[in-house]
């Protein structure tokens, strides 16, 4: 039996902190770090998966999604290291890293739900 995650409606409000990325810092540079807070908008997807009956099929689909997502993170780390090696501006690297980090919280539950429909 897996550990259940408790979801709260306040997660949506925490996700709104992602919009702070569009407010510049005091020195005028972008504040892309806050884009990671958009990951909290994936809470309804995770709640839908948590409410499903746990069986071998669900465990297998979670494992398939984790395997695909591990490849996603390997490519993300490679891309970030490549950009740093090419002396791309750190703001651009932070923007791409934050967006893809937040996207990963949507990709995994979407993959699990996709595999559940197959």
How would you sum up this structure, described in words?
The chain is built from 4 helices and no strands. The protein is mostly helical and 118 residues long. The chain has one domain. Helix 3 (56-85) packs antiparallel against helix 4. The longest helix has 30 residues, at 56-85. It is flat and about 50 Å long. The relative contact order is 0.16. The model has no long low-confidence stretch (mean pLDDT 87).
Coarse morphology: flat
Work out the strand percent. under 5%
The topology string of helices and strands comes to HHHH
Mean pLDDT: 87
The end-to-end distance, rounded to whole angstroms, is 24 Å
Radius of gyration: 17 Å
Low-confidence stretches: none
Descriptors:
single chain; 118 residues; mainly alpha; 4 helices
Ordered list of secondary-structure elements with their pairings:
Layout (H helix, E strand, L loop, with lengths): L9 H6 L27 H8 L5 H30 L4 H28 L1
Task: Put the structure in a nutshell.
The chain has helices spanning 10-15, 43-50, 56-85, 90-117.
């Amino acid at each position: 039996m897996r550990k259940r995650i408790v979801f709260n409606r306040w997660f949506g409000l925490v996700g709104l902190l992602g919009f702070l990325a569009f407010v510049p810092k005091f020195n005028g540079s972008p504040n892309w770090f806050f884009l990671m807070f958009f990951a909290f908008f994936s809470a309804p997807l995770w709640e839908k998966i948590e409410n499903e009956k746990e069986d071998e099929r669900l465990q297998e689909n979670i494992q398939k999604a984790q395997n695909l997502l591990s490849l996603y993170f390997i490519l993300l780390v490679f891309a970030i290291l490549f950009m740093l090696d090419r002396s791309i501006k750190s703001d651009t690297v932070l923007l791409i890293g934050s967006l893809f980090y937040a996207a990963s919280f949507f990709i995994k539950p979407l993959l699990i739900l996709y595999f559940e429909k197959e």
